[in-house]
Specification:
Layout: H1 2-21, E1 26-35, H2 39-47, H3 57-61, E2 66-71, E3 78-83, E4 90-99, E5 103-112, E6 116-126, E7 132-141, H4 144-152, H5 155-175
Antiparallel strand pairs: 1-7, 2-3, 3-4, 4-5, 5-6, 6-7
């Protein structure tokens, strides 16, 4: 009897391992919104990490988060590091490519609660009448642990909801007339 139970448990473990191994090796999150503002105004919010505190959804989750800035003031070479509570974690963002009013590419290095590296991109597309469509994406690779995590958590929903909040906050900022 014990032998049958052990064989059944072993079979379940093998099935679970196969299911995890068959999960996608990459993930992609994407959200976009059109803002009634020119691309250069939206680009300025993204290319300067000092401005992120006003619209980033993670800044609202942990207002006591410790932030540091290195490298260029904005654009390529700008670095932002954070160390926050358990929900925000710790990590570092580096702008790897900045084309004014067109694109900002960012390397994300997560340190806590888990180590991972992903690429995030912002694309700015003219949408007529002085408006701009902003597309915010994140792409990364799933190792075995990441694949297992994705069995229980939907990365698109988890990060995508935050992206929607951030884009809505940014939209409110760039669409508000200067005083």
């Amino acid at each position: 009897m014990l032998k049958k139970i052990l064989l059944a448990v072993a079979a379940l473990v093998v099935v679970l391992l196969v299911v995890v191994a068959m999960q996608p090796g990459t993930y992609h999150v994407e959200r976009s919104v059109t803002m009634a503002a020119p691309a250069d105004a939206v680009y300025a919010q993204v290319a300067d990490f000092h401005k992120w505190d006003a619209w980033s959804p993670w800044a609202k989750i942990d207002p006591a988060c410790k932030n540091t800035f290195e490298g260029a003031a904005s654009g390529t070479g700008a670095v932002f590091a954070w160390d926050g509570n358990d929900e925000v974690g710790a990590g570092r963002m580096t702008i790897t490519e900045a084309k004014p009013s067109e694109h900002v590419g960012i390397r994300l290095d997560f340190l806590r609660p888990f180590e991972d590296t992903a690429m995030s991109d912002f694309h700015f597309q003219p949408a007529g009448s002085g408006s701009t469509t902003v597309r915010w994406t994140m792409d990364g690779k799933n190792n075995f642990i990441g694949k297992a995590f994705c069995l229980f958590m939907d990365m698109d929903k988890m990060v995508g909801d935050s992206y929607e909040q951030g884009l809505a906050s940014m939209k409110a900022i760039v669409e508000t007339p200067a005083k």
